TrEMBL record:
Keywords: Methyltransferase, Transferase. This is Demethylmenaquinone methyltransferase. The gene is ubiE_2. One of its GO terms (molecular function) is S-adenosylmethionine-dependent methyltransferase activity. CDD domains: AdoMet_MTases. It comes from the Bacteria. One of its GO terms (biological process) is methylation. It is an enzyme of class 2 (transferase).
Length: 203
């Protein structure tokens, strides 16, 4: 993905994002917010978008949400105001260059963002850096299918990636390569198991 295409794409998505992806991707967000809340402490949500997950966290965690898109963040800010969430801080930031000290967070979530950023390995390297030892990284994403109709569909829509705002045939191997992050859980998520839930633990 190219950075300027991503920026333009999410400027277009911002006004309609919640209507299109709110319910569709709800289960992954709920699972991530529940997992982070159960662990407690400091949570970083990378690519927080319009903040759809923010009201799903419990009050006991301190949440920092970052996103590159001013238009998506403005919607997240609106939700924080509406729900009076005093435990949430939002900042405009690039996932590939996080402005936080090493070992700052107990949980980092990256929902539907790693197939969007131009350099997912760099974003994961930054995520690993800001994780405390033993921290969990929660990833929800669509990953490239090995075969079948889904693989064909991915191939057909892949040329539209810069318009859509994500890479449709994103290989899971691209999020499993950082030696500081060990996979501890992997399972399918709705719709129809097309999405994947991953938990990586910071060694
Ligand atoms: C598909 S949306 C996912 C939003 C939210 N996590 C969710 O699940 O609804 C992808 C988000 O990643 C953000 N994004 C893209 N590139 C980014 C970058 N380099 N740094 C931070 N956020 C980025 C986009 O602006 C967009 O809000």
């Amino acid at each position: 993905m190219k950075a300027n295409a991503v920026t333009a794409s999410y400027k277009r998505w911002a006004p309609v994002y919640d209507s299109v992806f709110g319910r569709l991707l709800h289960e992954g967000r709920q699972r991530a917010a529940g997992h982070a809340t159960a662990r407690g402490g400091e949570v970083l949500e990378v690519g927080v978008g319009t903040g759809l997950a923010l009201p799903l966290y419990g009050p006991g965690v301190k949440i920092t949400g970052i996103d590159f898109s001013a238009e998506m963040l403005a919607r997240a800010e609106e939700k924080v105001r509406q729900h009076g969430m005093e435990n949430v801080t939002l900042r405009q930031m690039d996932a590939q260059k996080l402005d936080f000290p090493d070992a700052s967070f107990d949980t980092v979530s990256a929902m539907h963002v790693l197939s969007v950023v131009p350099d997912p390995e760099q974003a994961l390297s930054e995520i690993a850096r800001v994780c405390r030892p033993g921290a969990h990284v929660l990833i929800t994403n669509h990953f490239a299918a090995d075969k079948g109709a889904l693989k064909l569909a991915e191939r057909l829509i892949q040329p539209l990636q810069h318009h859509l705002g994500w890479q449709a045939d994103f290989p899971i191997a691209r999020v499993l390569g950082d030696p500081r992050l060990r996979m501890v859980e992997r399972r399918p998520l709705p719709p129809l198991g097309v999405m994947t839930w991953l938990v990586l633990e910071r060694i």
